[in-house]
Write a structure and sequence with these properties.
Length: 480
């Protein structure tokens, strides 16, 4: 019994380290953006793609990674992801041009796509007791939130002390250690009846996300009526339509659309997109504003985000306890209200806005993000067949990454020319539409929280329950 507990603790430590590394990398680059722009002479679109190149690839391949792990082995897939992520990080630190950095970020993202859903599926299959699993997911949510917030802090200090390339160096030793620990402590597991490979569905997902992001990023620069932008959005619409039709007809789809008939599950997915669109857009503009508009050093800019980290550390476990006690609605309404309030505090942003006001806004934003993670994860994983936990977790993670991609693209587009002249006083004014949108994001999260926790939502979940039970009867996890 004691050995079993020790094994679980070791498994938890391995995944805390791996998750901290991979999730932190989503945000650590933001504070280094001004330094990257100066060193590599990057354009605004280049800066956006240095962020979105990572998130688009992760979002595109999370579902494939989850189903692949269920098929060939979760431990094996996890270790491969660590190796690829570490290699991509090393290449990013050596990038000579913006194009090379974007390409290496995509390589890094392929590894990152293998980490999040696979880690969650291993946790779900390791902690089989519902209470243990809830606590493990709560810890995972806290690590997720803290690592998202620590990224700007670490990025700021490393960029100022060593240079922007150092933000990628730290991943290499952590990755190697995690690979060794996983080999020693993590048990191999896979689905007894994994689903078949779905290359057509995978291709359609890549096309939809890449064309949508490209259209949003380049729309303002090329003109919304330009042939390239029109084609990009038409391609997005066609890919989404084909994906819905094709996946709906497959016996073993990459993305099981039946689960979206459950309003709580669908709302959790949409909430993840909205929440992380607001956060990623905020981080993208905040880093440029603090350093280029206000003239703060990278370390000082990173330190300004400390209230986000503190709020996340406090609110993530509180949110987990609320969800565990059945108060999902409360957690989501608080999250939405906090994000909307943070947006209201920033809609009048000026070049000389007082630091106390900024600190308060950042802290309130952290409360919103800290409260929203646990409901998303719990709703996405709960009720899904354990044997396909990788796909369940991948759906939630995909939603987060899609939101992150769109958030950066939309923020850059709405801010427009102000970003190109970030040193001027017009930069702060150009962010106002983005923060008004943030207010809307928060309101939408609160509304979704209300709708997804009522009687109608519960009834929709009950209608989907027989499908889920059928999946549970047909699939079971085995441990090698």
């Amino acid at each position: 019994m004691r050995a079993r507990v020790s094994q679980k603790v070791a498994v938890g430590v391995v995944f805390v380290a791996a998750m901290f590394m991979s999730i932190m990398d989503v945000t650590i680059v933001n504070v280094a953006l001004p330094a990257i722009r100066s060193d590599l002479h990057a354009s605004v679109a280049g800066l956006q793609w240095s962020i979105d190149g990572y998130t688009v690839v992760v979002a595109s391949f999370l579902l494939l990674a989850g189903s692949t792990a269920d098929r060939v082995g979760r431990k094996r897939t996890f270790q491969a992801g660590l190796a690829l992520f570490s290699t991509g990080s090393l290449l990013c630190s050596l990038a000579p041009t913006t194009a090379a950095l974007i390409a290496f970020r995509m390589c890094q993202a392929l590894g990152g796509a293998m980490l999040n859903p696979v880690a969650m599926s291993i946790i779900v299959n390791t902690f089989t007791d519902p209470k243990e699993r809830a606590r493990a997911i709560g810890i995972w949510g806290a690590v997720f939130g803290v690592s998202m917030a620590v990224g700007p802090l670490a990025g700021g200090f490393l960029t100022e002390a060593v240079g922007w390339r150092s933000i990628f160096w730290i991943n290499v030793p952590i990755g190697l250690i995690a690979i060794a620990l996983a080999a020693r402590f993590v048990p191999e597991s896979r689905a007894e009846r994994p689903r078949r490979v779905d290359p057509v569905g995978q291709l359609l997902i890549v096309i939809a996300l890449a064309s949508l992001t490209s259209g949003v990023i380049d729309g303002r620069r090329l003109g919304w009526s330009s042939p390239f932008i029109v084609l990009a959005f038409m391609l997005t619409a066609a890919a989404v339509a084909m994906l819905v039709v094709y996946e709906g007809r497959r016996a073993e789809p990459l993305l099981d659309l039946r689960f979206f008939r459950s309003l709580p599950f669908a709302a959790a997915t949409l909430t993840a997109v909205i929440a992380f669109a607001s956060f990623s857009g905020f981080l993208f503009l905040n880093s440029l504003y603090l350093q280029e508009s206000r003239g703060l050093a990278p370390a000082a800019a990173g330190l300004c985000t400390l209230p986000i980290a503190v709020a996340l550390m406090i609110c993530s476990p509180i949110s987990g306890r609320l969800v565990g006690a059945g108060h999902v609605r409360v957690a989501l309404v608080i999250a939405g209200g906090a994000i909307a309030t943070a947006g209201l505090l920033l809609v009048g942003l000026k070049q000389d806005t007082s630091l106390p006001q900024l600190v308060v806004a950042y802290g309130v934003f952290g409360v919103g993000l800290g409260m929203v993670n646990a409901p998303i994860t719990n709703t996405a994983v709960s009720g899904m067949p354990r044997a396909q936990a990788g796909v369940a977790a991948a759906t939630a993670s995909t939603s987060r990454q899609v939101g992150a991609s769109l958030g950066v693209a939309i923020a850059g587009t709405l801010a427009g020319g102000g970003i190109r002249v970030a040193h001027s006083a017009t930069f702060a004014e150009s962010t106002h539409p983005v923060f008004w949108l943030t207010v809307g994001y928060g309101c939408a999260i609160a509304v979704l929280g209300m709708l997804s926790t009522g009687a109608w939502a519960r009834a929709s979940a009950l209608r989907v329950a027989p499908l889920l039970e059928e999946g549970k009867r047909e699939e079971s996890a085995v441990t090698a």
